[in-house]
Specification:
Keywords: Methyltransferase, Transferase. GO terms for molecular function: S-adenosylmethionine-dependent methyltransferase activity. Pfam families: Methyltransf_11. It contains 7 helices and 7 strands. The chain is an alpha/beta fold and 205 residues long. It has a single domain, classed as Rossmann fold, CATH 3.40.50.150. The protein has a 7-stranded mixed β-sheet, sandwiched between helices. Helix 5 links the parallel strand 4 and strand 5. The model has no long low-confidence stretch (mean pLDDT 97). The structure holds S-adenosylmethionine. The site of S-adenosylmethionine has 19 residues, from loops.
């Protein structure tokens, strides 16, 4: 990884992913998390303030050392035990059926093999365990999709492999999850190409 992707992008994400509606969306997506949680693409820990009291531990999976460092103050302030337990969502160093819940916020866009990451989450979640997600991806409207396909190569270069065109709900169902709650919308105040969000929960079989 080059200097830009390693040092600059995590700092941009730390600021950009805290803007606008993000806080409210984090609050919504974290509602109902309980017990032992695995969070993939933990970033700089922007979800930490929204973990409910019912969460007993969070195992964070994050490749970026800079992201983890930026999480320092939030980690120090939370009563929840959070440990950096893995580096790659595509290959989780955890036993099968160990977690009650999983969390992924704006991460499936960036993991190179997101299908592998979803298979891994399914493997490590207990049967009936719930994945909480808010992800941007392929827009519901054809006119926005056309721009997403055009801009996707640039987006990947500017944001360390972030894709605009991933069909989030299809990916979840292909991985074997049952989507139980879903809200699809454009985030206010952001370009629609970047802001076609799917927020909800999906249950592992
Ligand atoms: C757009 S950021 C979102 C960060 C955080 N989830 C948030 O909501 O602020 C995408 C995150 O995915 C992480 N990531 C990239 N490749 C990954 C992988 N293979 N496994 C897990 N996380 C990965 C990046 O380092 C980055 O922190």
């Amino acid at each position: 990884m080059g200097f830009y992707a390693e040092q600059v992008v995590p700092r941009i994400v730390n600021v950009a992913c805290a803007m606008g509606e993000a806080g409210e969306l984090r609050r919504r997506v974290c509602q109902g998390l309980a017990g032992e949680v695995v969070e993939i693409g933990f970033g700089s820990g922007l979800n930490i303030p929204y973990y409910p009291a019912a969460v007993t531990r969070v195992d964070a999976v994050e490749p970026s050392d800079v992201g983890w460092k930026l999480a320092g103050k939030r980690l120090a302030a939370t009563p929840v035990t959070v440990q950096r337990a893995g580096l790659d969502g595509q290959s989780l160093p955890f036993a099968d059926d160990g977690y009650d819940s999983a969390l992924s916020t704006w991460t499936l866009c960036t993991i190179p093999d997101a299908a592998a990451a979803l298979r891994e989450l399914r493997r490590v979640l207990k049967p009936g365990g719930t994945l909480h997600f808010v992800e941007h991806g392929l827009a519901p409207d054809e006119s926005v999709r056309r721009w997403q396909w055009r801009l996707d190569p640039l987006q990947q270069r500017l944001f360390a492999g972030c894709h605009l065109t991933r069909p989030i709900v299809d990916m979840l169902t292909t991985a074997g999850f049952t989507v139980t709650e879903l809200d699809v919308f454009y985030e206010k105040g952001a370009p629609k190409t970047l802001a076609a969000d799917s927020l909800g929960t999906a249950v592992s079989p």
